[in-house]
Fold this sequence. Notes:
Largest sheet: 4 strands, mixed
Shape: globular
CATH architecture of the domain at 133-246: Up-down Bundle
CATH topology of the domain at 133-246: Glutathione S-transferase Yfyf (Class Pi), Chain A, domain 2
Number of helices: 8
Number of strands: 4
Strand order of the largest sheet: 2-1-3-4
Amino acid sequence: xxxxxxxxxxxxxxxxxxxxxxxxxxxxxxxxxxxxxxxxxxxxxxxxxxxxxxxxxxxxxxxxxxxxxxxxxxxxxxxxxxxxxxxxxxxxxxxxxxxxxxxxxxxxxxxxxxxxxxxxxxxxxxxxxxxxxxxxxxxxxxxxxxxxxxxxxxxxxxxxxxxxxxxxxxxxxxxxxxxxxxxxxxxxxxxxxxxxxxxxxxxxxxxxxxxxxxxxxxxxxxxxxxxxxxxxxxxxxxxxxxxxxxxxxxxxxxxxxxxxx
Length: 261
């Protein structure tokens, strides 16, 4: 591996393609017409950890008897660049899944960013979100923690351990250390808590489980659980297995994503 000399000003080498379609510019790249089904909630997503959050909540709402939580689910294939189409960018200018449109009111409402969608749906239907200030603040603590911490797991550890074109010791060591620190934090938190927010199952669990639950269960990054020695986080693993047994979670993992083209 050759030494990299950092230039004074970075320049984009457009001829060098990458598997994720990354570019240093935002906005749509082509005209696109997204389908719209007959349900009030239209979800455009994929079965990634962030995408799973929303389908889990929607299935939990249905399990709880919320009739208005019916939804159409469409597949945004990020490997093919669907997230850069004009219609999707109108919903989420950041070109990331998941994104949702709510057509139940007088005016359509767009919602993007996974935790924003969780909060929107939980508040809309009054489910899986606490009502007291103290409990709600604790919920927000964990939701904001997840949005800030998970990129070190996915874009950091997951990328360099599993997706990078060749292994590099420094970034793998750096992000493995941070990922294990986060797993240890959650494991210690779950010693005295049945769920992330205490004794009640909430959207905090739905936000964290697709990342940390699936990771310790060996479902992410080519079975990275062994590399991380995830079996040592016994409280976290027990929580992960408990969530995985919920009927709504099982349905969410098997959700049928309709094609957009």
